[in-house]
Design goal:
The complex is a heterodimer of chains A (320) and B (251). Chain A is α/β, with parallel strands linked by helices and 320 residues long. Chain A has eleven helices and 13 strands. In chain A, strands 5-6-7-3-8-9 form a six-stranded mixed sheet, sandwiched between helices. A four-stranded antiparallel sheet of chain A has the order 11-12-10-13. In chain A, strands 2-1-4 form a three-stranded antiparallel sheet, covered by helices on one side. In chain A, helix 2 crosses helix 3 and helix 3 (129-136) packs across helix 4 (152-164). Chain B has helices spanning 3-16, 19-39, 53-82, 85-90, 96-122, 138-159, 163-180, 192-197, 202-215, 220-244. The model of chain B has no long low-confidence stretch (mean pLDDT 91). Classes of the chains: A alpha/beta (320), B mainly alpha (251). Chain A binds chain B through residues 32, 69-71, 89, 91-92, 94-95, 97, 99, 101-102, 104-110, 114-115, 117-119, 121-124, 127, 162, and chain B through 1-3, 5-7, 9-10, 13-14, 17-18, 79, 83-85, 87-95, 248, 251.
Chain lengths: 320, 251
């Protein structure tokens, strides 16, 4: 684990040139038939960064990740990964990348430990790598269980283990927490934070926006093959025009009355609550207190989710 | 541990831990051997006057080896592609040669064990196969047979996307081929035009060659011809297998 945290474009003070960024994309394009899966994407991911790639299904995330991994060739634009182009297949670059596979990509009828040992050997990793990685992803007790008999969460962690077993510098994870229960998710967050602390660069996709907000240094939000926003979660939220929402039980405030309240930009009925949107929650809250009381009223300040939904063109109604 | 050793080990474990595959590789062909062997025990084939077992033993051996090679690589390729194992392998520096080499050695190993088991059973007193002095020549023939049928299986595994498709396509190829190649009963009993047609089938040549080596039904020339034809099949089908190979089902 001898990877000190590094940052892009800075001299490390020893006179040696700084290593190239983890990923550099310049105007990358990929078309399938008439579909522009990736439509002019440019960004740079620094070493040691935890980078989230968000977007609805079909936004082009997977294609973009596969281009970075070297599994697909970009139609146009330049791609640099750890300073080298990932396409065509470069066997010197591959051991420096870790790629999470589907949670079904296991050698059949092997135990968890045997599977990881096989993957380690494919990467030419050292002998103890598999046992070490099982501990990292919390599967040391399941080492001798056949991959077919692991639970969904355990399979997911084993698939992540396969991305880590050879100690890569840059790790690609595709919805690593998708099939996990909340507890397993939190324990995986610890694994991911430890990896970041160890200086690894992590590029990952997720549909859990709370998770991206909690983990990522920066997120890129993709829609229709383009990056529509790219910044730290906090700056994205602060810079958005996202409003505060007030949720009032519908039996105490009817929609018509709600729309008349001062400062309310918009009011919608959503199940058994009326959702009020306001730029400034204070005065609206006071008005609601007067007509309906504050019992059971909830306020929701803007989150990454609001930014995301605004940018990807989905309304809250569709999402809920 | 090298990538080749690891893949060979993983393949070996997957194989020996799978009762269904073990059954169809070893027990199922033996069943044919035993059933046909007992039905025709002590009988001779009218046309040639040779004991029936000297037809059925090399026939079942050739068919069993060919079948195991086709199904083994067909299922493995389909499953590796469907489950992204191929994608995983492609993202490692493992050379394709290590992947193919490990599968090849496994298949040859399985064929060798089949050969020993089937011949040993056929030589039991109830069946009474008598080996000809030229029997060791069956070994290179079986290796060539494994090679040719591995190439066929690889093509099947490349186009099939489900286990059902692999089984259906492989059976459609192998069951008629077994009958038309004389694996279960003597070709002499078939109409002559069918006997002519059977020359385009690789199993026919494997049968003839193995039979010539094990039972002396043909000379060195027949064995050499069978070997040459199998080499040609392997070369042509191997090129097709390489050309059509896909790492992924996704576009």
């Amino acid at each position: 684990m001898a990877h000190p945290p590094r940052s892009a474009g800075q001299d490390d003070g020893t006179g040696a040139p700084a290593p190239p960024p983890a990923v550099v994309l310049e105007d990358v394009r990929k078309t399938y038939g008439d579909v522009r899966a990736v439509d002019g994407v440019s960004f740079t991911i620094a070493r040691g960064e935890f980078f989230g790639l968000l977007g609805p299904n079909g936004a082009g995330k997977t294609t973009l990740i596969e281009i970075m991994e070297g599994l697909r060739k970009a139609d146009a634009g330049t791609v640099g990964v750890l300073g080298t182009p990932p396409w065509p297949r470069d066997t010197a670059l591959l051991p420096r990348l870790g790629v999470q596979t589907q949670a079904s990509a296991f050698f059949v009828r092997l135990t968890a430990a045997e599977h990881l040992r096989t993957v380690a050997a494919l990467y030419g990793a050292d002998h103890d790598a598999a046992a070490r990685t099982l501990r990292t992803v919390g599967l040391d007790e399941q080492a001798d269980i056949r991959v077919e008999d692991l639970s969904g969460g355990q399979r997911q962690r084993l698939a992540i283990g396969a991305a880590l077993v050879h100690d890569p510098e840059l790790i690609f994870l595709d919805e690593p927490t998708a099939a996990l229960d909340p507890q397993a998710r939190r324990s995986l967050w610890r694994v991911l934070r430890d990896l970041k602390r160890a200086g690894r660069t992590i590029v990952y996709t997720t549909h859990h926006l709370d998770e991206a907000e909690a983990l990522c240094d920066r997120v890129a939000i993709m829609a229709k093959g383009r990056v529509t926003a790219l910044d730290s979660p906090n700056r994205l939220i602060a810079g958005s025009s996202a409003v505060t929402r007030l949720l009032v039980p519908a039996d105490r405030l009817d929609l018509g009355a709600a729309r008349e309240l001062p400062g309310v930009l918009r009011a919608d009925l959503d199940g058994d609550v009326v959702v009020l949107q306001a730029a400034d929650a204070g005065p609206v809250l006071a008005a609601v207190a007067e007509v309906a009381g504050l019992q059971g009223v909830q306020t929701r300040t803007a989150t990454l989710e609001d930014v995301y939904l605004g940018l990807t063109g989905q309304t809250v109604g569709e999402q809920l | 541990m090298s990538a080749y050793t690891a893949l060979r080990g993983a393949g070996y474990r997957a194989y020996t831990r799978d009762r269904t595959t073990l059954f169809f590789t070893f027990a199922f062909p033996l069943l044919f051997l035993v059933v046909f062997g007992l039905i025709f025990s002590g009988q001779e084939v009218e046309e040639s006057g040779r004991p029936y077992i000297s037809y059925i033993a090399p026939g079942v051996l050739s068919w069993g080896v060919a079948n195991a090679a086709v199904f083994g690589i067909g299922f493995t390729l389909m499953q590796w592609r469907r489950d992204d194992i191929l994608r995983l392998i492609r993202m490692t520096p493992t050379p394709l040669g290590a992947v193919l080499g490990s599968r090849y050695v496994l298949a040859v190993g399985i064929g060798a064990v089949q050969g020993v088991v089937f011949v040993a059973v056929a030589m039991l007193p109830g069946f009474g196969l008598a080996l000809d002095a030229g029997w060791p020549l069956a070994l290179p023939l079986l290796v060539l047979g494994v090679s040719a049928f591995l190439a066929i299986g690889a093509i099947v595994g490349t186009y099939a996307r489900t286990p059902e498709a692999v089984a259906a396509v492989a059976n459609c190829l192998m069951v008629p081929m077994a009958f038309l190649s004389g694996s279960f009963y003597p070709l002499d009993a078939m109409p002559s035009w069918l006997q002519t047609v059977s020359w385009v089938l690789p199993l026919r040549h494997l049968n003839d060659g193995v039979s010539a080596a094990l039972t002396g039904s043909g000379g060195l020339g027949d064995i050499g011809l069978a070997a040459a034809v199998l080499v040609a099949f392997t070369a042509v089908l191997g090129v097709v297998a390489f050309r059509t190979f896909r790492w992924s089902d996704r576009p």
